[in-house]
Design brief:
The chain is α/β, with parallel strands linked by helices. Helix content is 54%, strand content 14%. The strands form three sheets. The protein has a five-stranded parallel β-sheet. It has a five-stranded parallel β-sheet with strand order 7-8-6-11-12, sandwiched between helices. The radius of gyration is 25 Å and the shape is elongated.
Length: 342
């Protein structure tokens, strides 16, 4: 049985059932529903051939070519789907809810599966994703100089009943020349948006949501402009933590990092650091003096962030004497309440 369902119904069922994304691998890699399995009806080359046939010869020849490619693989599709859906119930989508998902849904239905087909396909899902970024939200922005432990505080805010989203975790980057160290490869901007929308959909838009202060890009990932604009217009609680504590924290994080990676990170900001500071930072890395290297790098990052922060209209500085994230989370909540932000 094939049931065509809305995106809202689809995502609800996706919490329990496997999702088969029958688009080509390149399409899936560019962005996909986070819980989906890549289940391509055509590989990238086959998809290109069918598309070319459609443009040059028309609908019917393209369909026949698609059937020639699809037919020999039908048994394999059923076997693979059986592994993924033990109870023989699953969800299927393609780009627009057209022939590819229709063909796969027919095959699996014929083979005894209960199939739920996404109306409008991935395109409809993307509309829902993009809508999330323009919704007005009561945001609270956690700012502060590099090494203030902003990301570390977020999970402790959550334990205190606050809504949070870790943007850097979703982007798999910490937002500086050193930001990729110890992180998995970054998603595409499109898939970052999918991951972010998934998190936003979990939260009540009428209740405060804590985000870490970010620039327009996090590594290679671009922030959704509508959401970023809201963040810029939102009060920012800027953590003011002694520099020696920030240096010590960052030095501990980088002390186990391969020296070649640290050297490459310093060279990325060579023009901003200046020739002498760059030379000193590289020497510090070679000598294993991570605190010296961090101190030199912070001379640039502190100046740049302070300059950006000065452009904001609503900045509330919060002095803290500890780098302990649990302790600081409690003080952040208390400070927000005191300033009528919560």
């Amino acid at each position: 049985m094939v049931n065509t369902i809305t995106i809202q119904e689809f995502l609800k069922k996706a919490e329990q059932l496997p999702v088969l994304d029958v688009r080509a691998p390149k399409e899936f890699e560019a962005g996909h529903i986070p819980t989906a399995h890549s289940f391509p009806i055509f590989d990238d080359e086959q998809r290109a051939k069918v598309g070319t046939a459609y443009k040059q010869q028309g609908h019917d020849p393209a369909v026949l070519l698609g059937l020639d490619l699809f037919g020999p693989r039908m048994s394999g599709f059923v076997k693979e789907a059986t592994k993924l859906a033990k109870d023989k119930e699953l969800l299927v989508h393609c780009w627009r809810g057209g022939m590819r998902s229709g063909a796969m849904a027919w095959l699996l239905d014929f083979s005894g599966f209960n199939v739920h087909l996404l109306q409008g396909g991935y395109k409809t899902y993307r509309h829902l994703v993009l809508e999330q970024f323009s919704l007005p939200r009561k945001l609270l922005i956690l700012g502060g100089l590099t090494g203030s432990g902003k990301t570390d505080i977020l999970p402790y805010l959550a334990t205190l009943g606050q809504q949070t989203v870790d943007l850097e975790g979703l982007a798999s980057h910490k937002g500086s020349a050193f930001g990729s160290i110890g992180m998995a490869p970054q998603p595409s901007t499109e898939h970052f948006e999918n991951l972010l929308a998934t998190e936003l959909l979990k939260h009540d838009p009428l209740q405060p949501l804590w985000l870490e202060d970010e620039s327009k890009t996090i590594g290679r990932v671009v922030m959704p402009p509508e959401l970023h604009n809201q963040m810029q217009a939102t009060p920012t609680i800027a953590l003011d933590i002694p520099k020696n504590l920030r240096i010590r924290k960052l030095a501990q994080e980088y002390c186990q990092t391969d020296k070649a990676i640290l050297e490459a990170s310093i060279l990325k900001i060579k023009k901003r650091l200046g020739g002498l500071a760059t030379k000193e930072a590289l020497a510090a890395i070679a000598g294993g003096d991570m605190e010296k290297m961090v101190e030199l790098a912070l001379a640039y990052y502190d100046k740049a962030y302070t300059f950006d922060l000065a452009k904001r209209q609503h900045v509330l500085p919060l002095e803290l004497q500890s780098i302990d994230p649990e302790e600081n989370a409690a003080q952040v909540v208390q400070f927000a309440k005191k300033n009528n932000l919560l």
